[in-house]
Amino acid sequence: MSATVRDRAEVALPPVARVYRSRAAVELKEFFRQRESVVFTLVFPVMMLVVFGAVLDYDLGAGVTFTQYFMAGIIAAGIVGASLQNMAISIATERSDGTLKHLSGTPMPKSAYFVGKVVQVLAVTVLIAAILLAVGVFAYGIDLPSGSDWFTFVWVAVLGAAACTLLGIAVSSLAKNGRSASAMVTPIALVLQFISGVFFQFSQVPAWMQTIASLFPLKWMAQGLRSVFLPDVLAAEEPAGTWELGRVALVLGLWCVAGLVLCVLTFRWQDRGTD
Length: 275
What we know:
The chain is an all-alpha fold. The protein has eleven helices and two strands, in the order H-H-H-E-E-H-H-H-H-H-H-H-H. Helix content is 72%, strand content 2%.
C-alpha cells in the first residue's frame, strides 16, 4: 500500500449515520449533565402543573376540570421550553465559549450538529409529555386522548417542536451568550404563555391579546392540543368556535418554513467580530 493510500485510509471518516448518532448521544449527555437545564426544562412544567392543579381545582362545565384544560397548555409550554428556549440559550452559550468555532473546524459534517440538537429536542419533548401525562393521570385523574386523538397529539407536538426549534436556533444568533439569551427569551416565553391560553382559558384573554398570541406558534400548539384533551362542546369557547385543526397545521407549518429561512440567514459559528 502506497503512503498516499495509507494516509487517506487513516483520515477516512466514519459513515455519516454513525456521526449523526454519535453527535445525538453527545447532545443528550450534555443536556442531562447540566442541572440548570434539566430543572428548568423538565421540572418547571411539572411544578406548574402541581401548583395550578392544586389551586385552581374547579369545573369549567361539561364535566371538565381546569386541570384537564390546563394539561394541553402546560404540555405546549413544556415543548417551547425544550425547543425554543433551550436551543436559544444552549447554542448562544456554545458560540460564546468557542465550542461552535471548534466544531466548525473539525471534519464532522456541520449538519451533524443540527441533527444532534433536533434529536435532543425530540427526546426531551417526549420525556416532558410522558412525565406531565403521568402526573396528570395519577394525581388529578386527567382523561387521556383516545383513538385518532393520539395522532392529532403527535403531529401537533412534532410540528410545534420543529417550529420552535428552528426559531430557537435563529434567536440564538441575536444573543451574545447564554445569559443574554436567557434574559431575552424567557420573559417573552412567559408573556406568550399568559396570553396563549396556558394559565387561563383562552376565552378569558382580552381580544387584543388573543390577536397578538395568534401571531406565534404557542397559541396554535395549545389550541391543537386542547382538541385532544377536551370534548368538542368546548370548541365553542375558541375564537372561531371550532378547533381549526387545519389552520393549526398551516400556521405551524409556515412557522417551520419561516424559522428555517431565518436559520439560514442568521446562523453564525462564531461571535460577531471574530468571523
